[in-house]
């Protein structure tokens, strides 16, 4: 298709695929601008509708694997787009034969946040308060700390969810609070709705939460355009984010848990070490298992970081499984 091309064609743009939600568009515009600057190429957003956007079932019923990502991946493989931008936490852990990770930009806030009316926090919500979330992990975490609250399964985009607390929702739809990713709220300029941030130490979040994945085809165009794109992707890649996310997702893959599993994982790089901590919850929130390990970086650069990530996450996975994580998590196996 592009064989024999020497220079970039005038007007040839990097077609960047994104979901059409306000959140997806906001985050993709940001990386598209950064990629344009770093590559010197013109960019163009291509909106793609995914099954997760059109389905009306709750997320736990949809079953998860790739509902938000497979249509984007299909467009990438077909060549309709050159780059697919995903919320990293929505990506399945299984490798795709034709696709690889092109870049992972610097992570945003990985924490979850409570958005409640009247400035309330998880501690000050009234007894029996209605709290909205569709995530088995968040359900387990809420139940562990506030077994009295009534958890309401919600889905939809962030603005729809916020309207259940702050908007004109009728009394029967009105919620006292919802739990959302701080990163999503930040990207939409809605951090003002947050009444409490949960610290990662006692409220770990989904593997890769707050990070984006830029995927590209494994098969590269040997053209000036292809080289400029590769250079741009390398420039916006953030090596420690990529390794931290790899460590968190390594635990997810190692536990053979789906993206809806009640698992929280947090990794970070500091002072020559990569740390990863993961917690598996029973769905009712009464039980949990945590494991933490660190691996030292044997050298510099992305490869050394990824090796440490693999090492640390393998040890965390092994310890969680040895302590019965599979049994604990499968208490929610029906999801
Ligand atoms: N599963 C939905 C989803 N995928 C990515 C984000 C937002 C932030 C992110 O992690 O990049 C959200 C919403 C949420 O969990 O509140």
UniProtKB/TrEMBL annotation:
Which InterPro entries does the UniProt entry name for this protein?
HemC (IPR000860), Porphobilin_deaminase_cofac_BS (IPR022419), Porphobilin_deaminase_N (IPR022417), Porphobilinogen_deaminase_C (IPR022418), Porphobilinogen_deaminase_C_sf (IPR036803)
What's the cofactor?
dipyrromethane
Function, as annotated, reads: Tetrapolymerization of the monopyrrole PBG into the hydroxymethylbilane pre-uroporphyrinogen in several discrete steps.
According to the UniProt record, one GO cellular component term is: cytoplasm
Judging by the UniProt lineage, the source's domain of life is Bacteria
Q: Which family does it belong to?
A: Belongs to the HMBS family.
Tell me, what is an example of a GO biological process annotation in this record? heme biosynthetic process
Q: What is this protein called?
A: Hydroxymethylbilane synthase
Q: Partners and quaternary state?
A: Monomer.
| Sequence ranges assigned to domain Porphobilinogen deaminase C-terminal in this UniProt record | 245-320
Catalyses: 4 porphobilinogen + H2O = hydroxymethylbilane + 4 NH4(+)
Provide this UniProt record's keywords sorted from A to Z. Porphyrin biosynthesis, Transferase
Question: Is this entry keyworded Ribonucleoprotein?
Answer: no
Q: Which organism is it from?
A: Humibacter ginsenosidimutans
Where do the Porphobilinogen deaminase N-terminal domain residues begin and end?
14-222
**Enzyme Commission number(s) of this protein:** 2.5.1.61
GO-annotated molecular function: hydroxymethylbilane synthase activity
